[in-house]
Description:
Heat Shock Protein 90; 5 strands; disordered N terminus
Amino acid sequence: MTTTSRHRRNLLGMETSGPSFARDAVGPLRRLFLGPTRQLQWPAHPFFRYAVPPGILALIGLMVVNAEYLRDARHMAGVLPVLISLGTVAPLAIAVRRPVIAWRFAYPMLIVGTFHAKPTDVWPWSPVQIIFFLLIMVTVAAAEDTALTVWATAFNAVLPFFYTDYGNAIGQMLLFSAVALVGDLFFRRRQNKRALAEQTELTELERARRAVLEERTRIAREMHDVVAHHMSMIAVQAETAPYRVEGLTAPARAELAGIATSARAALTDMRRLLGVLRADDQQALTAPQPGLDELPALIEKAQTSGLDLSVEITDLSEVPEPVALAAYRIIQEALANAARHAPGAPVRLEARACDDRLDLVVRNGIGTDGQPSGAGGGHGVIGMRERAELLGGTLHAAPDGAGGFRVEAALPYRLDTTE
């Protein structure tokens, strides 16, 4: 590589890194003196409201104490001690909301506070001014990022070298650095807590989203199994009709063959869709899906396990299979919630088949532990609502106003009553 090419590459590197350096180093310096600052937010607690009047009185008292100190130790006269004391105390009141703005006022006051100081003084500032400035520096470091805190600490550390001897200036520089480090630790701790809270929220949202997707996938598989049965029956009936029905014309036979072909093609597509929905680590579902015929066994099992369950069910024999499957799963989940979250509570199940819908109601009172049942910390209600909405129905799950919990679902369907 030639010298010219290396020089050109170095120039390109400087052009690339220059703006980044200005943002990372010069940016916080500009913000320290001119840029926008952060405002501290305090909790809405009555303590802070009641603490304002005593705090103001304390600041006034310390201002008077500092003024008397300047009169006695510095031999100042007139209003000058009062003005210096006001400039010393006021920035702390500003630091409660705007720490950087308070530092902008307090830092020049360090220069003003050295007026009439004796050459033999170890600290050319009054005790009140030292304590207040350290408190302001803590708030700045706790509220702002590390880069701005480093700049403020650097300016603080330089000042003592102009007003005291080298040994004391080194000690004051270490004191300012230690105070800034403590404040920066508070800042980092708050940032970590905020990041952890955001990550926890994202994790909960992702967990809820994943639970919804898994429940939808499971519902899709179950609906596939129900619809696949009907599609298979259509295909079989269309293929066997020419052998079972005499006198069919050639066009009718061709129409039935087309119906059988379409039914089997749709069945193939549904099985392909099921393969996409099913995860790689899950095995195929081979057991028949439950329906309302299995509801008596579910009720008996719940009562045997200790659930105080009363039942009112009308004739459900005409309910279509997709609705029957959704109804069974909703009742199963509602009874499980009642047993889990309110053990010992009386539970009532009502199921009524109408001409165009199936109405379900599962309600319970307060359990032996004094708690009504509910959705708990899982996603059972989400799954029940998804099942109802897939059929075009509705589901409501909420406290009943009497200390219990009520799950109510309406699952629509149409019964073919034509001859």
